[in-house]
């Protein structure tokens, strides 16, 4: 039987996945914006996929907040916009890291 991961480890998993997706999303939007500009389209159209992909990041950050015993919906809604998602990601990462260190 496999042992269930602790709340700190589970939160760390969700936060690291969300942070990686956030980084890839910003790189992808930058490349897409440059490509759209080179093709003669408005580069602002690259913001739409950014907002759609950010929903996945917000969901993962909400799951991490739930694993840490915090209000899941508050953190999910706060991470709905990309600049706030960065702040929530850093906040939850530091909390998950502290909880993981305390359990050792």
Tag the structure with descriptive keywords.
79% helix, elongated, mainly alpha, 104 residues
Brief summary:
The chain is 79% helix and 0% strand. With 104 residues, it is an all-alpha fold.
Record the SSE blueprint.
Blueprint: H1 7-38, H2 47-67, H3 72-78, H4 82-103
Q: How would you portray this structure in words?
A:
This protein is mainly α and about 100 residues long. About 80% of the residues lie in helices and about 0% in strands. It is built from four helices and no strands. The chain has helices spanning about 5-40, 45-65, 70-80, 80-104. The longest helix is centred in the N-terminal third of the chain and has 32 residues, at about 5-40. The radius of gyration is 16 Å and the shape is elongated. The chain starts with 6 loop residues before the first helix and ends with a helix.
Overall number of strands = 0
Structural class: mainly alpha
Uncertain runs are none
- Terminal-residue CA separation: 22 Å
Give the overall shape, derived from the CA principal axes. Answer: elongated
- What is the mean pLDDT? 86
Number of helices: 4
The ordered string of helix (H) and strand (E) elements is HHHH
Largest sheet: none
State the share of residues found in helices, binned by percent: over 70%
> What fraction of the residues are assigned to beta strands by DSSP?
under 5%
Compute the CA-based radius of gyration.
Answer: 16 Å
